[in-house]
Structures are given as structure tokens and as C-alpha cells.
Amino acid sequence: MDWQPVIDADWRALSFFNGSDSLFFDGFISTLTSGWTWLPLYVGWLYMVVKNNELSKVIAIISAVACCLLLTEVMAEGVVKPLVARPRPLNDLVLGHTVDVVQGITASDYSFFSAHAANTMGLALFFCLLVRNTLFSLAMMLWTLVNGYTRLYLGMHFPFDVLTGFAWGAFVAIVVYAIYHFVERRLAPKGNFISTQYTKTGFSLVDIDVVICLFSLCFIYALFRALFF
How far apart (Å, rounded) are the C-alpha atoms in residues 180 and 201? Predict the structure, then answer.
């Protein structure tokens, strides 16, 4: 199969998403792409899981989350990237000079596929399936899309790398959740919650609001950081 048309299309699509003339936006995106920026969100997830589940289920959920991260990271970084060995856009020897690069943002490993995209999609979709709340799911999908966009803006990945990462992350999340759900139902069978204060999987709407507030604070932090970039 001739991959050149796909590669050419990838470059054209990247040129649409990559970079800007705004130092403020450079700082905003650079902050959003960092895993440390989202630490409050991770704490919110843990708070929500611990607050709404007994210990055995908390352990099962944390184990499932760890499996999601392990499968997405190992497949991307340990298997596919070394096998395909596609240079990142900013490191491409022919067209790398056309990529807008934010000062201080570099990487020497390969581009296909994006572990960043796979990790975020895997985590986000797993929690969406676990919690089953529309507003929460929208927030988590926004988080995933924002992280994917940052990789294009910074010239770290091509669009096809990010889309493939999303696809692999979604596949992992669905498989891991299916296994978790199968085991959980047999260890602790439970009917759906019927309440205006809880989701049907037993998560308090108040605690979900806490997670969404922490998610919003991460964006506010990124905006403030961008002012001093």
C-alpha cells in the first residue's frame, strides 16, 4: 500500500492545527499538555471513587485504571513507536523546519502513535463508563480532545498519530471496563441506583460536581500560567 497520500494529508492537517503567533496561547497550550497540570483532576477521580465505593471495589477500580495506563503506554512506547519509527513533526529532517515549535518543548523519541492521546482517552472513557453521567462524560471527553489538540499545536504528533492513540485508548478502556464489570458483578452483585442524587452506578452527583470543579480549576490555572509565559 502506498502511504504517501496519507502522509501528505497528515502534513496538511497538521499545518492547520500547529502553532500560532500568540505567546499567551503558547503558554496556555504548553501548560495544558503537562500531566502535572491535571493533578487536581486525578485527585478528584480518587476522591470520587473512594467516597462512593467500599474498599474492595476501590481496589478493583484502581487496578483497572492501572491496567488501562499500562496497556496504552506499553503498546505505544514499547511496541508500536520503535516498530514504526516515525519521526515527530518537529524532528522531521525534510519538513521539520515548517513546524511551529514552542520554546523549550522538545522530544527525541518517535511520533506514531501518541501515548498521550491513548492514555487520556483510555482513562477518560473508562471513567465515563464507570460513572455514567452526561455532564461528567462531556467534561472527560473535552479533557481528551484538549490533550490531543495540544500535541498537534506543539508539533509533537501528526493528526493520524493522535487519532490512532484515541482509537487504541478507547479500545483498551472498553475491554478493561468489560472485564472489571464482569468481575465486579460476580463479587458484589448490585442493582441500579434509582435516585436523583446518584448515577445508576452509585456515584453521588455532588461528588461528580467536585471533580468537574477541579477540572475547571486546571483550566483556570493554565490561563494564569499563560499570562507569565
Answer: 13
